[in-house]
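Reading is simple: each integer encodes one residue's backbone shape. An example follows:

___
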Amino acid sequence: MIGKVKKWLGIEGVKMELILEEDATAQKGMVSGTIRFTSMNSQVVTKVKVVFIERYSRGRGKDKLVDEYELGAIELHEDIVVPAGEAEEVEFNLSYNLVRSEMDEMEKSNFLLSPFIKAAKRISAVKSEYRIEAEAKVKGTALNPFDRKEVKI
């Protein structure tokens, strides 16, 4: 009985680790990586979803606004058998498109306005943070394993 509950909740089940390449750049538009699955019991992963997200924040204190944008996503629909006590790895390539604001475009195109735009962004506390999230669907479990990694661009 306890074994069934543990399996259903994902306890002692599949654990996933997201391993990314070090040099994710905006010009490249692609992030490559590997997802490593490990488990104490033999299980089957039926689907993996990998998403590239930008967290865009601006403002300070109670006037702070935060938005999240999905820049790219892939879904892998394949059965991945994760044997007990062994690691199973799946490689992926995730393409993405960075979204630039009008201020960012003006900063890049006009070198005379660039210092003023940078100062305005610093005063307004404009900041973008990027991350990759992965979630797997495991056959017979209610809670899905996931992992998240920060990406520098």
